[in-house]
Structure formats: C-alpha cells, structure tokens
UniProtKB/TrEMBL annotation, chain A:
GO terms for cellular component: plasma membrane. Belongs to the CcoP / FixP family. NCBIfam families: ccoP. The chain crosses the membrane at residues 32-54. Pfam families: Cytochrome_CBB3 (PF13442), FixP_N (PF14715). Heme c 1 binds at C121, C124, H125, M261. Heme c 2 binds at M173, C216, C219, H220. This is Cbb3-type cytochrome c oxidase subunit. It comes from Aminobacter aganoensis. InterPro entries: CcoP_N, CcoP_N_sf, Cyt_c-like_dom, Cyt_c-like_dom_sf, Cyt_C_IC, Cyt_c_oxidase_cbb3_su3, Cytochrome_c_Oxidase_Subunit.
From TrEMBL, chain B:
It comes from Aminobacter aganoensis. The keyword Mitochondrion does not apply. GO terms for molecular function: 4 iron, 4 sulfur cluster binding; metal ion binding. Keywords: 4Fe-4S, Electron transport, Iron, Iron-sulfur, Membrane, Metal-binding, Transmembrane, Transmembrane helix, Transport. The keyword 4Fe-4S applies. The chain crosses the membrane at residues 43-61, 95-112, 169-187, 199-219, 377-396. Pfam families: Fer4_18, Fer4_5, FixG_C. This is Cytochrome c oxidase accessory protein FixG.
Amino acid sequence: MSEKQIDELSGVETTGHEWDGIQELNNPMPRWWLWTFYATIVWALVYSIAYPAWPLISTTTTGFLGYSSRADVKNELAAAEQAKSAYVEAVKAKSVGEILADQNLRQFATAAGSAAFKVNCIQCHGSGAQGSPGFPNLNDDEWLWGGNIDQIYQTIAHGVRFDGDEDTHVSEMPAFADVLEPQQINEVAAYVASLEGQADTPDLVPAGAQVFADNCAACHGENAKGNKEMGAPDLTDAIALYASGQAAIARQVRQPKHGAMPAWGERLGDVKVKELAIFVHSLGGGE
Amino acid sequence: MLDETEVERLEVEAVNSAKTRQPLYSARKKVFPKRASGRFRQFKWLIMLITLGIYYLTPWIRWDRGPYAPDQAVLLDIANRRFYFFAIEIWPQEFFYVAGLLVMAGIGLFLVTSTVGRAWCGYTCPQTVWVDLFLVVERGIEGDRNARIKLDGAPWSFDKLWKRVAKHATWLVIAVATGGAWIFYFADAPTLLGDFVTGQAAPVAYMTVAILTATTYIFGGLMREQVCTYMCPWPRIQAAMLDENSLTVTYNDWRGEPRSRHAKKAVAEGLSVGDCVDCNACVAVCPMGIDIRDGQQLECITCALCIDACDSVMDKIGKERGLISYATLADYQSNMAIATDPVTARIDPKRVRNPEGKLNAAIAHFRLGRIFRLRTLVYAGAWSMIGVALLVALLSRDRLEVNVLQDRNPQFVRLADGSIRNGYTVKLLNMVPEPRTIVLSMEGLPEAMMSVVGMDQPESRSVTVEAEPDRLKTIKVYVRLPRENLAEGQSFTFVVEDKASAESDTYVAKFNVPEAAR
C-alpha cells in the first residue's frame, strides 16, 4: 500500500491517480447507493428464479412464473387470428365476386393474398408476379384461361394440366412437326409473327395465312384472337408466353411447350385461394 | 441597529465539511433548511407558482379544432400519432420541429449558464421546484429548522407520529397529483380522469402514475439534495459551461474575511475584521446543506437563498448588502487582488474600505454590459436563428401533401396492345381536421392515362378523391402510355389540389419504359 495522500485544498484523501496535474478525490459513496447496488443484486437473483435463466446441460431453468417467449408468440399469433377471424369467416361465406365488391373485404383479401402469394407463387411467377418465359406475367391484361375474378379463382383452385385434379384446365397443342411440312411451318410462323410486329420473311405471310386457317383457326380462332375456353393464347397481341419473333414461333409450332400449374384448392384451402384470386385480380390486369 | 454579537448564531456545519476522516460509504447527513426571506425567495415563489401552474393546469386548457380533432390545447396523441399544441398540429414526419425545440433548449441552457450560472438548477429544475414545494409542506407541519431538528431527535410520541404521518401523507398526495398530471398530456384529460378514478383507464396509465408518484415522493421528499449531488450529470457539465464572466453565487471573502463572531472585541484589541460575523445563516438556509463560504462547489445549485439570508443579516448590522452575491469570477479575482496584502498574502479589510468606511471605489461590481460578450452573443444568435428558421418553416408548411411510391417490381408491364403501364402508390396527406375533396391529376406525357384501383371509372387524366379529415389516404394508381408515345419522355407530374382552398402539391414521378422503346 502506498502512503495516504491528502488533497491540500479539500482535505480529502485522493486515490493517487493523476492526470495532467488533476488528482482524483476519494470521496465516500453515499450509503443509499450501496443499498441500491445490493438491491439490484437481489433483483437479479429473484429475476433469474422467476424467469428462464440458468443454463443446464440440454435445457435451461424455466422459472417459477412459467414465462416463455415462444408461448408469448403463440398467444400473439392466436390473438391475431382471433382479430381477423371475422374477415376470414366473411371470405369463407362469400363468393369471390362478392368479396371484390366489398371494399373492406377486398382490402383484407388483397393483403392476405399478397402474403400467400409470396409463399406459394413467386417460385414460378416471380416476386413481382412479373413471370418469366413460360410462366405468365400476372400484371398484364393477357389471360390464357380468362381474367375475370371467377376465372382466376377457377385457375388457381384447379390448376392447369394438373393430373391430380379432375376439374383442371386441360388442352394440348399438337406438335405440328408431324403434321405440316417444314415449309408450311415457316409460312405459318411468318404469318403469326406478322400479326404483332414484323415477319422475317414477309413474302411467306400470304401462304401462312392459308396454313393458319386450315390448321390453327380451330383453336386460336379465325382472327387469331385465341380462345380462353381451351387456353389458346391470343396471337395478335404484344405479349408472348415463350418468346416472340418468327424463329421462336416456328419452334413452338413444331414442338409446343406446355406449362403446368398445380391445383391449389386442396392444398391451401378455399379461403386462401379466394384471397390469392383477389390479389392476382388486383395486380392491374383483372377484368 | 443590532450589534453583530446580537445576531442569532446558528449551530450548523456543512455536510461536505472535510474536518473528519470519511469512511468508504457514508450515510446521508440530514439537511434541515431554514426558511429564508428576501428578493430571491420572492422570485423563487413566483417561479414555483408559474412552473407548477403550467405543469398541473396545461392539460385542462381547451382549444376548439372542430368536430374532427380533439379539443385539448396540448395533447400528445401517441395512439393516433398526432401532436397538438394550441393552433399547431404536428404529424410524425414533422417531429423535427420538436427536435429543433430541443436544440433550442440545449443552446438556451448554454446561454443561461454562461450568463447567470446554474440558474436552471436553482430556479426551474423540477427537482428544485418540487423539493421547494415539499419543504413548504414539511415546514408547515413540523415547523422551521430548529423545531424540525428537535422533532427529528425526539423519541417517538403521538405528536411526532401524527406530524410525520401528516407530512408523508401530504407528500404522497402531491406525488399522486404530479404523477397523475403527467398522463393527462397523452389523452383527453376529463375523460381520462373519469376513467382513472372509476378504474377503467388503461393499465399503462396506472403504471405511469405509480412510477411517477414513486419518483416524485422519493426524489422530492426523501432524497432531495442527494439527487443533485450524486445522480444528476449537470453539476459536472456546468464546470465546462462557466467562464470568468458568468454570474455565480459567490461569498465575497475579500470583504468578509477575517470573519469574527466578536468583531467589537477584536477591533478593540486592534485586530481588523471583515464583514462576516460567522452567524452561519447562509449555511442554515441552504437546501443543499453546504457552506457557500467554502467557495464554488458542485453541490451549489445557485438558488441564491444564502444571498437572502446574508443580506438580512447585513441589514441588521448596518453593513452593505452583498457579502454573498451574484458575482463573476473576474470581478471576484480583481477584488481579491485589491484586498490581499502583498506582504502577508492575507485579506486585509482596510484595503477594501476607504477611511469613511465605505467600500473602495476600485472595487468591481457587476455591470450589465458583461452579459453581452462574444460567447453569449453567439449562443443568443444561434438560438434566435434556429427559432426564426423553425417559425418560418412552421408558417410556410404544407397542409396538403402528396407522396408517391413507384412500383419497382415489376418496373413496368407491357399490356396486350403494346402500351406500357407503370404502377404508383399515391399517398395523399390531408393534414387539416376537415374532410376535403382532392383532385389528383397528371401534367406531362399528354397521351398517358391513369386509372385508380377500386374506382370503377374509365381511364382519365384526373380523378377526384374524398380525403378523410386529418388522415393519410393511400390509393393505387396505374398509368398507361400507348405504344406510339413511349419515346416521348420518362417523367410526368402528379398534381393534387384542393379546389376549395386552392392548396396544392406536386410530385415529379418517373415513367419507366423498356430500354428498346426509349
């Protein structure tokens, strides 16, 4: 122990620490401060007994109050479910058309559908529902199987070309490589390309029109406007599911690709499907 | 006129007196402040009346804002995120006004401290004001200093018991009222009071009142000067704030020393004595329990009650007031230089007084001009500038605003006819407590048309929206630009206008088109 140092001016003992000539006085702490400190220790002990605290080998003490943050979350989730149950019941009871007409319910269903979409749909349709080649963009106003609310609901509930659902949308475009001559395929591709934009070989277009009328109009319509009953796309508009341009069209004519979508009705339940339909309808292309 | 030996002498010692060796932890020394009277005491009564009045009564002031907003003049409506201050209503994004006020409060504190020292501590700090109030109660029930010391030392008796019970009960009533007043700033006061007494208020209201009751009672009644000395950081900060021209409560030892309790006798013996008769009145009135004659110290809150106490003693013995006074360090040091005998390095009372017994003409007194110096002017200037800026911002602020969030995923959508569509979330802020009819229209991109989700209307260039009073209205807007016009430009302007008041706001929005079409 070093010798006791007394500050001259105040007569108080110093700690002996000095910074730039300034010494630290060793004034006594107030006793209430000491008691406050003891009180915090007692508090900590009581707290660690009352609440989960002490680590054991494979678990922790649970505390005599039985508190757990997991139970808290569970309660809060239950409370949230309870809070929205009135809306959920209404969604369950009403048709998608009725939901759409009800401002409050539509708002609820849109929000709920948005959440469900992020979990179930974005894997194929993209996080902004913008699609990608082969997977339709849901924001636009081109619909393969129809864009009114009932049609959207039907498509989501039963899927497209989905084996497990009897009511699923089914249609298949033949592979025209087996039906048409290569020259004819080039001609019809030129014709379809000319319907929206430019054909690479404009001189083939008139012949292609004839090939189209003979082979394609049955499904796509005489004016090539498509047929939503059988999911035949409109070939005159600016939107192509796979790719645009004559070469891509020729490929699709020879050996068509067909997309498939699972039926969500069984899997998610009717309420979720309704919510998803309302959400998809709200993306700007709903009819 | 009294002879100085006739002045009542009080037995009291400063709590931080270092005469004895102190242990590691020390118990609180009880302080029994004596009642003071004089100019500063009067001033403090006035400030106590004003500050307590503001605190307790403000929530009860009514202010009519029409049927769509609360009629409480000052209300922090946290649940609805609205703040009302008389004619001013603040939305959360306008909270910078409050930040500006806090900056002003900070600079104001610097200004006040550099000018008149710890005036905040001594006069307006809630701790000081409530301790003062609690002391009034204590004095009223138990009597002044001597009676209280006697009572404190007396064995328990019925008299002591009822006095103590009455004192603590009154303190608790004040504490409940203090904690209670706080919650009225956050909800409609009359409704909340009704709910509170009938047990229907929110649990958080009862908890808040309980906590503030406890802090008021403990800090104001039980801990008092301990809060200032040990818990508050301001006594430490003030050391950096004061300069040699700041006014602080000062014991002028250049005229007080050597102090003597028997001045006449000393003078007869040929000794020269100062003005201090060592009556300890200054220590007895001190709510912090310190001795100002030990010099400037962190415990001193500059409440100036020692000035009152000393002045009344000086009046009695026929000396000039101001033995303890508000003085600057510069004046004090120059006066000390005059008073100190260069040979003995002791204070010689003869050096400060001329032969007629008046104070020497060379003695420095505080001049008002000292307040105006570069430092205080800079503080005052910064304070005023922020104040003016806030005022200008407040008077010119918008009460109708439009904010637009553009869809970024996808950035644009190609429609079947080849046109391009962009989506926007338009937020209309109707910041007045009245419903308004707002027209949202577009300027620029003359071929572009917009449609609002949920509004069954054909595409147009302008839509009419009913905005609820004092609310944010969010609408989803799609804007479509035909294929032929895609190259025309990539931005346009949303305009919102209240036709009734002609108030309007604009937002320049981007319009995204595919790269190939630009």
